[in-house]
């Protein structure tokens, strides 16, 4: 059976981008043309709701439900905003880049449709600053869309007119958090905002705003074109659609694949990534970016979607997996993550700002062989306190997910650092790479 | 003083936002692209253009890591230090750069050619380790490949 | 009202609050940092975590930040929950990770909110064993010391400075665990309210630099309740002394007046009390030495000399003072007799004050407290430069412009305490604030509309606004289109407001402006609105003096020159600030005897035959009546050395020494203590009848005890003089107030005028104020916020003022010289305080650039201006807001003698222009 890959089917594998001509030839912007005759904003909303589309930014929130909170009708505040979250700074994650570089018009079309559905007349693509190639290609695509009249003019047969701007960020992982992103777009420090009020009510410049992950938005034209039933059937489980899965780490063939939602990690690892690299063995993986908990051998057959992973195991996150192998020190691995989180904390709330650097220092002392049992207790304490709701936003709880699970699955390794007074993998685990 | 073209670029950026302040980050990036970094004077010029105070703008400038408030070399090498690249040996790459150009993380080579900075995951994890030089990303950068990559950047 | 359950007990709370303030209001101890009663919640520090339960079956609950959770009916929380407690202890532990262990040398020690909270959470043991981060500190000018290493990143400073006080030059820099609070570069913190950072910062990052120069621990301070003498608003302060030196001023909460905040003039202007220029000895100066300060001749018994002269006098002129207490003025009036009592202000000011009194006495519109100003939802300011003349009122208006947008916030169902959400929802929207004046300041950036014009034109705008609101009120002929349209916009905004406020100033000395403002207020009243009117007055007790009555200074001059009197007693007044030098010289020349009772050396004192050293505010008891008409008591903080006495005491001594047998029963000579002064004052005029109610009298006792001025933990009192004598000297007694000069006495709840230090067990910082309120941010328990002496009668109907001035016409030859007040520089007393002196700008002349060009002047050049018999060296400022045909003269000490407004022929008056050296 031919597997459907609506998002990436036409993406060039040589890294070149899909042109407007190619895009239109394969049915691009058709949805936009159909709006006048076939679909009102409510219809698009309904299609998205019925498709069961869940946000691909890591949280898996139902997109239709989120849209439902946006005030509609003539008394709704104006303008409303739709924002594509292309910050993609989650380590191990590269799916949005693949889409934006390979098929920039897909995002433009997705945003037009989302804007149309929500009567949001201004859109921003918030792009991480390091994605220069994406920026180039998106800039071009936006200009082309203006030329073609998809942007800046009423859509054919409607009164809806959509403007789209690209905003290149200046770095900082926290910008990916949707409320911090809103502050960043307003030209402020990217410190998150407390919720409620949610951005759908009070967002950019105080107006209703929907922030949607880039991959999420790519799905919308296909849902509009093919319907929600078709979309639901793409997946293997109850969450509709396909997902871009990725793998990095010491596997034979690291990369990305668009697969039905609910594909298992084992399938991705063994069938697509060709299994572990020679000479190394699997120890665990982070299922989707580094803010997710480790999964180990026993979890590899869980369907990788938003509903099938039990909360006590973890969550899907961005579905771009990072594999931990037996030649890599799990403590060093986690240290790397915590250093990242400590550095990327926005500095607003106490537990995150002060707790994460402390955790990173403790882990460093593990690596340097200077840790004690009390340090383990301190790590445990942090995993307990830096929980959702205790900190201002999701960054610190995200930072604790891999640490907490590492302390669970690899506790022996932590303890060996204490008893041996040095890292069993030596200080620089990567030197062992000669084996490969 | 902002040059005419700089000013023009800023004016364009401002049109994307309902208020001037919204363009603060764009403005910093635009000017930095031309001048390499944001000096105190430059900061003041931009702040004036945006009709905000130096404090306002510096508060933003110092928050984001891609805004340089100190001079950098002619080129900037961003070495990804996130986990996928770390597994694949980013530390060795960084050592190699240090050996070749006498610049540790956060430093500029004595000849002013290269500033080396750590960077969070560049989103090229499938081709780790990754390094970005100026705006170009290189994947599978083994230490032995560093020198040939750098040839382009004099 | 709602009921919430805290640790299984029910409490009734206002559901518009958050849980944190609800708990604090009931005396429950929940630690916090980033929240502040005046600044709402942002949820940053995570210190206020409590456990919240869904219902009574929910056993596990979840941690919430009490400052971010609404106190809705039925909320169940636990403060004592072990998990919540442990989490809170962890938050302190994190905050302490980088905090230096410098409490013993830290200025904040002993009144540090961080110390209090650390003790409250029970964090005692340090587990962090890595290096601490360190920062470089900045030099922030004469007021504020900066010690960034102590920062706990609560973000209060920037929230206060930027969001609350409208400051621009302080911000947060950097990110993650390297955030820095300061200026972009070293330099003076510019905002006029920077001093509040000292109290807003929960630890020792921002501390009072003036205090640092003569530092002492909080618990070693002897403190009493003061009223700020530096402008007419009457902010409540606590003045604190040790070893004969006034050490500092802190804010004293009064819900109706200053709330939590002071301005920098009020906080840092206190050091005139310690000035080397203080008059400390009673002195008689022989005639030939008059006018030469310093050359005095010892007359063995100066007081007897003075009494003698009073006895021999053929008519005495008593000159009162708007900066002396009401009681001192009444004492003088009593000594010399009402007919010989002169207000000590010039004719023009005298006129203005009586107009203003009339407006409040006969008009239907009440005056506004600062609290009212904060709550008003549309404001029109005419001719007052608030930032410079009544700074705390400007700070209040910065809050008032948030009132109208709050309605939208309510619609979005965002609780008003949710500060960050409110700001995000409101963005740059502001409620109506219209500023009409003749000098631009940064405050104008918050205005809906500004209007810069000569005083007559400002008055015309006011009349036009009134005319638009109420057709019956006089209209303005030949109003230009621009002003007409503005008037319409202002009228509309005021008419749509629930609580409109009109503010008018006296700085420009424009009678017409004041009348116009009254018309606007009355017009609104006529439309069934409930407006308030606020008049900014020149000095701390201008209103008290106005109520007391008396003639102007000119009349006093006449009395001497016409020979109806030969003796002058000047009470706390430098006449050279109020009239031409020649006139004052002649006045003293013609008087047989002149006596001055004052605290600081000045030109008038130098001309006197007899100088009697007066106590300053913190050295005496007294009453000031603020511009609002609010009478407030201040208490003596300490007994100073030398011959210093409260002015009213000198006067009462003189009264006793000179009274005839038959009037021993009445008059100032019968006053023995301050209560006598108060009772006498109450009799002077009907409006003073309630003056005795503003604060407890000297006989007030609690459990039979006086109230101590010193803290319970005052250290080393017995050893203070041990190098001189092993005997502890007896503490001075205090006949005049219920306060004692020791640490012994009643400790417990007090009527608010007697609270000299806010302290409660576990609350050593100023945040202890919370424990004095029933509802956090609300009035103090037992608050006696002063007594408003003038209230409009219900039936009062005012006529209209009809003297609409003609439009201002610039002339070819002459310019209208207008006074420009300076927050640092125009107030007589604070000008003698070193920290303020550092902030006083060069004297300057502002003119419109076109006038500058016409006169051939260069911007930033320096000119010599010959004017009213003196020559002033002035820096030239081109200022587009200065109305063409007028020039502004900054009222700093060097030009304190000029009488403005005045017409001046600048072409003739400008003597020399020098181009300033290029910087
Ligand atoms: C610390 C942090 C970083 C985040 N980074 C990203 C990101 O880079 N890209 C993204 O799409 N969502 C990111 N998110 C999630 C967003 O807040 C938001 O939920 C998402 O953009 C919503 O889009 P979706 O519903 O389409 O998934 C992040 C969240 C947190 C807490
Ligand atoms: S400086 Fe003070 S007030 Fe500001 S954040 Fe730091 S501790 Fe808080
Ligand atoms: S006081 Fe509640 S989080 Fe700071």
Describe this entry's structure for a reader.
The complex is a heterotrimer of chains A (436), B (154) and C (919). By secondary structure, chain A is of the alpha/beta class. Chain A has helices at 20-25, 30-38, 41-51, 63-68, 95-102, 104-118, 132-148, 178-185, 214-226, 228-234, 265-272, 330-344, 350-367, 373-385, 395-409, 411-420, and strands at 81-86, 122-127, 163-168, 209-213, 242-249, 255-260, 282-286, 320-325. In chain A, helix 7 links the parallel strand 2 and strand 3. The longest helix of chain A is centred in the C-terminal third of the chain and has 18 residues, at 350-367. Chain A starts with 19 loop residues before the first helix and ends in a 16-residue tail after the last helix. The relative contact order of chain A is 0.12. Residues 427-436 of chain A have low confidence and may be disordered. Chain B has 2 domains: 4-63, Arc Repressor Mutant, subunit A; 75-150, Glutaredoxin. Chain B is 42% helix and 12% strand. In chain B, strand 3 (131-133) and strand 4 form a beta hairpin. Chain B is elongated. The model of chain B has no long low-confidence stretch (mean pLDDT 96). Among the domains of chain C are: 2-80, Ubiquitin-like (UB roll) (Roll), CATH 3.10.20; 283-350 and 544-693, Rossmann fold (3-Layer(aba) Sandwich); 364-537, 3-Layer(aba) Sandwich (Dimethylsulfoxide Reductase, domain 2), CATH 3.40.228; 815-914, Barwin-like endoglucanases. Chain C contains 27 helices and 35 strands. The mean pLDDT of chain C is 94. The chains are: A alpha/beta (436), B alpha+beta (154), C alpha/beta (919). At the B-C interface, helix 4 of B face strand 7 of C. Flavin mononucleotide binds at residues 55-59, 61, 85, 87-90, 174, 176-178, 211-213, 216, 393-395, 398 of chain A.
């Amino acid at each position: 059976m031919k597997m459907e890959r609506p998002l990436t089917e036409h993406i060039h594998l040589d890294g070149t981008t899909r042109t407007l001509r190619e895009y239109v030839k394969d049915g691009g912007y058709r949805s936009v043309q159909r709006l006048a005759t076939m679909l009102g904003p409510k219809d698009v909303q309904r299609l998205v709701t019925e498709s069961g589309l869940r946000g691909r930014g890591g949280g898996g929130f139902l997109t239709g439900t989120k849209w439902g909170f946006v005030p509609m009708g003539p008394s709704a505040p104006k303008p409303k905003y739709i924002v594509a979250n292309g910050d993609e700074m989650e380590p191990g994650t590269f799916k949005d880049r693949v889409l934006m570089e390979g098929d920039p018009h897909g995002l433009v079309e997705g945003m037009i449709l989302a804007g149309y559905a929500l009567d949001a007349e201004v859109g921003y693509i918030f792009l991480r600053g390091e994605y220069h190639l994406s920026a180039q290609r998106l800039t071009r695509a936006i200009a082309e869309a203006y030329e073609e009249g998809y942007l800046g003019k009423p859509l054919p047969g409607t009164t809806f007119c959509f403007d789209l701007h690209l905003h290149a960020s200046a770095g900082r992982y926290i910008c990916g958090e949707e409320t911090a992103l809103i502050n960043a777009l307003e030209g402020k420090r990217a410190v998150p905002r407390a919720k409620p009020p949610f951005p759908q009510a009070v967002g950019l410049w105080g107006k209703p705003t929907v922030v949607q992950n880039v991959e999420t938005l790519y799905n919308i034209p296909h849902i509009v074109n093919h319907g929600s039933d078709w979309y639901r059937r793409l997946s293997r489980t109850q969450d509709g659609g396909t997902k871009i899965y990725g793998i990095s780490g010491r596997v034979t063939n690291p990369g990305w694949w668009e697969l039905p939602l609910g594909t298992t990690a084992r399938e991705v690892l063994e069938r697509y990534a060709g299994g572990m690299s020679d000479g190394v063995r699997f120890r665990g993986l982070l299922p989707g970016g580094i803010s997710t908990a480790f999964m180990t051998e026993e979890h590899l057959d869980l369907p990788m979607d938003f509903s099938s992973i039990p909360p006590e195991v973890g969550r899907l996150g961005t579905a771009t997996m990072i594999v931990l192998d037996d030649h890599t020190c799990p403590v060093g691995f986690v240290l790397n993550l915590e250093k990242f989180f400590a550095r990327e904390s926005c500095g607003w709330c106490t537990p995150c700002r002060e707790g994460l650097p402390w955790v990173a220092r403790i882990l460093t002392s593990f690596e340097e062989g200077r840790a004690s049992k009390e340090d383990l207790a301190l790590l445990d304490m942090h995993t307990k306190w830096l929980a959702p709701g205790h900190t201002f936003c999701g960054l610190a709880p995200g930072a604790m997910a891999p640490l907490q699970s590492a302390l669970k699955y690899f506790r022996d390794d932590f303890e060996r650092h204490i008893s041996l007074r040095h890292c069993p993998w030596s200080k620089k685990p990567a030197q062992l790479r000669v084996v490969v | 003083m902002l040059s005419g073209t700089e000013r023009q670029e800023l004016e364009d950026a401002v049109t994307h936002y309902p208020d001037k302040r919204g363009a603060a980050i764009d403005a910093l990036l635009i000017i930095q692209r031309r001048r390499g970094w944001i000096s105190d004077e430059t900061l003041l010029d931009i702040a004036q253009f945006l009709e905000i105070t130096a404090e306002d703008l510096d508060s933003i400038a110092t928050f984001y890591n891609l805004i340089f408030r100190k001079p950098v070399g002619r080129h900037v090498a961003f070495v990804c230090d996130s986990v996928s690249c770390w597994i694949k040996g980013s530390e060795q790459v960084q050592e190699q750069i240090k050996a070749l150009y006498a610049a540790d993380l956060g430093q500029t080579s004595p000849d002013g050619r290269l500033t080396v900075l750590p960077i969070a995951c560049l989103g090229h994890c499938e081709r780790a380790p990754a390094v970005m030089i100026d705006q170009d990303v290189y994947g599978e950068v083994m230490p032995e490949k560093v020198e040939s990559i750098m040839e382009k950047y004099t | 009202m709602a009921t919430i359950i805290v640790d299984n007990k029910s409490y009734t709370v206002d559901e518009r609050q958050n849980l944190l303030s609800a708990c604090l209001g009931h005396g429950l101890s929940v630690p916090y940092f980033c929240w502040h009663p005046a600044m709402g919640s942002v949820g940053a520090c995570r210190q206020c975590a409590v456990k919240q339960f869904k219902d009574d079956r929910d056993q596990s609950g979840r941690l919430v930040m009490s400052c971010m959770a609404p106190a809705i009916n039925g909320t169940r929380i636990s403060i004592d929950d072990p998990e919540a407690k442990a989490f809170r202890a962890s938050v302190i532990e994190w905050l302490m990770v980088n905090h230096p262990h410098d409490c013993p040398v830290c200025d904040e020690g002993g009144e540090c909110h961080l110390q209090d909270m650390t003790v409250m959470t029970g964090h005692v043991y340090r587990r962090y064993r890595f290096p601490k981060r360190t920062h470089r500190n900045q030099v922030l000018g004469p007021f504020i010391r900066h010690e960034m290493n102590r920062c706990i990143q609560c973000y209060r400073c920037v929230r206060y400075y930027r969001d609350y006080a409208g400051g621009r030059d302080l911000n947060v820099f950097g990110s993650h665990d390297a955030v820095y609070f300061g200026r972009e570069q070293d330099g003076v913190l510019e905002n006029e309210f920077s001093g509040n950072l000292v109290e807003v910062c929960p630890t020792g990052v921002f501390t009072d630099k003036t205090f640092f120069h003569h530092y002492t621990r909080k618990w070693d301070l002897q403190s009493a309740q003061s009223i700020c003498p530096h402008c007419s608003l009457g902010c409540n302060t606590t003045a604190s002394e040790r070893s004969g030196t006034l050490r500092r001023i802190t804010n004293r909460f009064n819900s109706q007046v200053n709330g939590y905040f002071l301005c920098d003039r009020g906080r840092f202007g206190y050091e005139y009390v310690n000035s080397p220029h203080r008059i400390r000895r009673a002195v008689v100066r022989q005639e030939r030495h008059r006018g030469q300060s310093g050359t005095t001749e010892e007359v063995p018994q100066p007081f007897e000399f003075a009494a003698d002269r009073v006895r021999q006098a053929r008519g005495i002129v008593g000159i009162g003072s708007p900066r002396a207490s009401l009681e001192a003025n009444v004492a003088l009036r009593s000594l010399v007799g009402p007919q010989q009592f002169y207000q000590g202000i010039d004719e023009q000011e005298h006129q203005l004050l009586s107009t203003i009194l009339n407006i409040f006495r006969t008009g239907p519109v009440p005056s506004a407290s600062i609290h009212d100003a904060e709550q008003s939802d549309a404001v029109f300011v005419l001719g007052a430069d608030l930032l410079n003349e009544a700074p705390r009122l400007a700070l209040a208006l910065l809050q008032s412009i948030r009132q109208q947008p709050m309605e939208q916030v309510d619609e979005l169902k965002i609780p008003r305490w949710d500060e960050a959400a409110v700001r995000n929802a409101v963005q740059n929207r502001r409620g109506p604030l219209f500023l009409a004046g003749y000098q631009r300041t940064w405050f104008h950036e918050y205005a809906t509309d500004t209007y810069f014009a000569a005083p007559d034109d400002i008055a015309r705008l006011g009349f036009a606004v009134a005319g638009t609101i109420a057709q019956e009120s006089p209209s303005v002929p030949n109003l230009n289109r621009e002003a007409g349209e503005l008037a319409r916009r202002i009228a509309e905004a005021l008419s749509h407001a629930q609580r409109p406020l009109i503010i008018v100033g006296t700085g420009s000395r424009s009678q017409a402006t004041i009348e116009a403002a009254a018309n606007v207020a009355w017009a609104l009243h006529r439309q069934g609105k409930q407006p308030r009117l606020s008049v900014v007055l020149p000095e701390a007790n201008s209103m008290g003096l106005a109520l007391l009555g008396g003639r102007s200074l000119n009349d006093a001059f006449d009395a001497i020159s016409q020979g109806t009197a030969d003796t002058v007693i000047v009470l706390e007044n430098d006449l050279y600030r109020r009239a031409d030098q020649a006139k004052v010289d002649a006045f003293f020349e013609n008087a047989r005897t002149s006596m001055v009772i004052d605290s600081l050396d000045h030109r008038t004192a130098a001309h006197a035959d007899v100088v009697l050293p007066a106590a300053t505010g913190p050295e005496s008891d007294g009453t000031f009546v603020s511009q609002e008409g609010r009478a407030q008591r201040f208490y003596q903080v300490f007994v100073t050395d030398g011959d210093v006495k409260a002015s009213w005491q000198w006067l009462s001594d003189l009264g006793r020494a000179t009274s005839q047998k038959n009037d021993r029963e009445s008059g100032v000579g019968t006053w023995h203590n301050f209560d006598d002064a108060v009772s006498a004052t109450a009799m002077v005029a009907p409006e003073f009848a309630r003056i005795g109610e503003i604060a407890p009298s000297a006989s007030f006792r609690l459990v039979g005890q006086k109230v101590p001025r010193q803290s319970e933990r005052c250290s080393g009192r017995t050893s203070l003089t041990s190098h001189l004598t092993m005997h502890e000297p007896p503490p001075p007694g205090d006949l005049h107030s219920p306060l004692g000069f020791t640490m012994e006495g009643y400790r417990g709840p007090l009527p608010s005028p007697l609270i000299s230090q806010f302290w409660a067990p576990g609350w050593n910082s100023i945040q202890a104020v919370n424990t004095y309120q029933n509802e956090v941010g609300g009035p103090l328990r037992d608050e006696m916020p002063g007594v408003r002496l003038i209230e409009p009668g219900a039936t009062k109907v005012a006529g209209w003022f009809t003297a609409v001035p003609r439009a201002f016409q610039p002339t070819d030859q002459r310019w209208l010289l207008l006074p420009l007040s300076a927050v640092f520089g125009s107030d007589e007393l604070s000008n003698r305080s070193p920290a303020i002196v550092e902030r006083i700008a060069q004297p300057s002349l502002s003119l419109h650039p076109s006038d500058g060009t016409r006169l051939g002047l260069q911007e930033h050049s320096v000119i010599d201006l010959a004017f009213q018999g003196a020559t002033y060296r002035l820096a030239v400022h081109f200022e587009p807001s200065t109305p063409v045909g007028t020039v502004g003269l900054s009222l700093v000490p060097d030009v304190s003698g000029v009488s403005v407004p005045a017409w001046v022929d600048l072409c003739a008056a400008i003597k020399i222009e020098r181009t300033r050296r290029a910087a």
